Amino acid sequence: MPKRIILSPQLNRSENVWGRREKDWWIGGLMKKVLLGVLGATVVLAVGACSSSNDLLPPIPEQAPSNPFIPHYHPVDTSNNLVTPPDGTPPTMVEGSTSIKADKRKAIEDGYGMIGYSVFSITRVRPLDLSLLRQQAEYVGASLVIYYVANEGSRTVYLPRPTRYNGIIPTPILVHDYEYGVAYWQKVRSYAFGAVFSDLTDQQRDMIGSNRGCAISVVVNGTPAFNSDFIAGDVLTVINGQRMTNAKDCHQVIDALSGRTVEITYWRKGTKSTKTITLH
Fold this sequence. Notes:
single chain, alpha+beta, seven-stranded antiparallel sheet
C-alpha cells in the first residue's frame, strides 16, 4: 500500500490511503519513466566526465520536512557540461502541458539537460505553494523547472477537535488528493553534435535495408547538427568511415571525434546522402 503524505494547516500527520484511480498512471509510474527517459534515446552533448548529482548537492536544509519537493527529489546522472546558474538567479517556472514528451522535446531543443525529477502524492486542503518548488529549484541549481499538478479527487476526513469542556468532537474537513511531477533542468554548456539519437525502428531498417545505424529524434537549436540542416528522422549509417551500429555507438564515435571535421552518411525519406560537418 503506497504511502500518501498529508500536510495542511489542519492535517500535519501521515496516513496510509489507498485512493489512487486508474488514471493515476500518467503522473505516477509512467510519468517517472517519461521524466527519466529522454524520448527513449541518447543525447549527444560535448565530451565530459560524468558524475552523479548526489555528489554535487549540499546537505538537505532544515526546512525539508515542511517542503515535500526536497525529500522527493531524485537526481539523475549528469555531466560537468551543464551550467549551474549564478547564485540568486531565479529559475524559469513553466507549468507543463498535457504532453510530457512534447515538453521534454522543447526543453532539449532549447538546449537544456535534465538534472533531476520529483514525483509524489499529497493530500491537502489546498495546493502546495509554488514558492516551495522555487526554493527546491534554487537549491539544486535548476535554470528551468517544468511542473505538473493533477487533482485526483476530493473527500471528507474527520479530525478530533477538543471542546471547551474537555470533550472531543469529530470535525469534517474537505481535502484533495494532488499528484505532483516536476522536471529540473540546467543549460548545456556546449554540444559536440547536438542531437538526440535513438535505435532504429523496423520501418527505418526497411528504408535503409540494414539493421545498423541510428536515428535522430531531436535536433538542438544552434548546434552543428542544426546548422548543417540535419532533421529529426534522419538515419546516420557511417561517420568518418566508421559504420554505426546503434544509438550508443553514434554517441561514442561523435564524442571521440569532437572538434574535428567529419563526413556523415545518412538517409532521409529513402534517399542516401553525405554531409561534411565540423563538430564542436
